[in-house]
Amino acid sequence: SFANVLLCKEEVAAIEVDASQELSVSKLLERANRDRTPDVDEPSLIGGDIALKPEAERNADPCTSRGCLWLKYTDGKVYIPYYIANHYSYREREIIVRGLESFSAVSCIRFRPYQNGDHEWLSIESRNGCYSYVGRQGGAQTVSLSRQGCLYHGTVQHELLHALGFNHEQTRSDRDNHIRVHWDNIIDDMEYNFYKIDTLNQGTPYDYNSVMQYERYAFSKNNLPTMEPIPNSNVSFGQATQMSQNDITRLNRLYQC
Ligand SMILES: [Zn+2]
After folding, report:
1. I need a labelling partner for 85 at 20 to 30 A (CA). Which of 13, 93, 97, 174 fits?
2. Where is each Peptidase M12A domain found (predicted)?
């Protein structure tokens, strides 16, 4: 009967949640940041979800020349204060805290709540899209985890890895040995998302399963691949739903955990 095909709102919501949890971090980020309209006080993004400081500020930034690592304490741990905006629901907050705490089990990184007197901290807020600055910036630095599409375990880990100093896998200096970029398929004026940079590879191999690797059709203007693996173009990549072992190894080496 007619009544049988009607789903209540909660059931529809549950189905949507299930479908999203199977999506890769790359897909989730692209979906959340598609058609993003930033507020006037928000940064522009590069690479899909990396926040950029205004150029004047970038040039004066000592972090660029010194590296943007967070400081290690005498006990060998790296304590990083965070503040979570109060506009999140209890359930959303739990997803964020679970992401923050996932680093404790596998590294010397310890995210801890902001305390009076902290000079540098992550301000986790639901702004327009999912994004983070790369590395420690000084003062409060925004990590945006929008309530519309960013609250997944792997997405939280991805943005925190940016804040810890990591870039995208496809921009690695040795990228061309592992990924062929199809420049003709990239959305016009988005080619810069694929420019190689001096990444912190820490002696770890290129990792198709890194949570920092975007997928085959990222920033495609014509539904054709923007990236293909070399030499076997059928190998799957960019499908990670959480940090890989290489992501963890790299993190531990960077901070000498
Ligand atoms: Zn990213």
Report:
1. 13
2. 59-257
The answer to whether residue 58 is domain-embedded is yes
In a domain, 17, yes or no: no
Residues involved in catalysis: 159
Identify the domain containing residue 141 by its residue range: 44-164
Number of domains in the chain: 1
Tell whether 217 is covered by a domain.
no
DSSP per-residue string spanning 16-60: HHHHHHTS-HHHHHHHHHTT----TTSPEEETTTEEE--HHHHHT
Token pair for residue 233?
């173009």
pLDDT at 110: 98
Annotated ligand binding at 168? The verdict is yes
CB 30 within 8 A of CB 110: no
Residue 158 labelled as part of a binding site: yes
Task: State yes or no: 87 annotated in a binding site.
Answer: no
Q: Are 214 and 158 in contact (CB under 8 A)?
A: no
- pLDDT 10s digits, 67-119: 689 999 999 999 999 999 999 999 999 999 999 999 999 999 999 999 999 99
Q: How far, in Å, is the centroid of ligand 1 from the Cα of 7? A: 35
Q: Is 11 inside any structural domain?
A: no
pTM for the predicted model, two decimal places? 0.88
Distance 216 CA to ligand 1 centre (A): 15
